[in-house]
Design a protein that fits this description.
Helix content is 17%, strand content 41%. With 161 residues, the protein is of the alpha+beta class. It has a single domain, classed as Alpha-Beta Barrel (Multidrug-efflux Transporter 1 Regulator Bmrr, Chain A), CATH 3.20.80.
Length: 161
């Protein structure tokens, strides 16, 4: 069952790319690199790695997505990595246990639930795309410890207006 949670600002290091649904690895495969880059600098993850959806155009199969790793304090990034901050505010959150392929249904259920509750997202629509202030998938399972995708835990967090 979804719930509404208040989050503070959360610093992270990330990478951003424009992708399609079939090229998700362009950003997803960078999470391990970001964690290694942080470790080389004596900084470590302060939470689960995530995908942040900046822009979604499903009809055009075009997404602007970040792969990010939260940190305890801001870190100066370099190259194509950047330091960012997830915005503070109220988020609708729900957990999913199982294969990430199930996230499409979980997301649809979450969006439907929020509509029934008459909640408004911190999102604008322009030129057929949704532009989100905070739409996150947090991957809580370490694939090195649990390679079976059917046993993964993922939290969705969508920022409210």
């Amino acid at each position: 069952m979804p719930e509404i949670v208040e989050f503070p600002e959360r610093p992270y290091v990330g990478v951003r790319a424009t992708i399609t649904m079939t090229t998700f690895g362009v950003v997803g495969d960078r999470i391990g690199e970001i964690i290694g880059w942080l470790a080389e600098r004596g900084a470590y993850p302060a939470g689960a790695p995530f995908f942040r959806y900046d822009s979604i155009d499903m009809a055009g199969d075009r997404l602007v997505v970040q792969a990010g790793v939260p940190v305890a304090a801001p870190v100066e990034a370099e190259g194509d990595l950047f330091a960012g901050t997830l915005p503070a505010g109220r988020y609708v959150t729900v957990s999913h246990h199982g294969h990430p392929d199930g996230l499409m249904k979980v997301t649809a259920d979450l969006l439907r639930w929020a509509q029934e509750q008459r909640l408004s997202w911190d999102m604008t629509e322009k030129d057929g795309a949704e532009h989100w202030a905070g739409r996150l998938e947090l991957y809580k399972t370490n694939p090195m410890e649990e390679p079976d995708l059917d046993n993964w835990d993922v939290d969705l967090q969508f920022k409210l207006a």
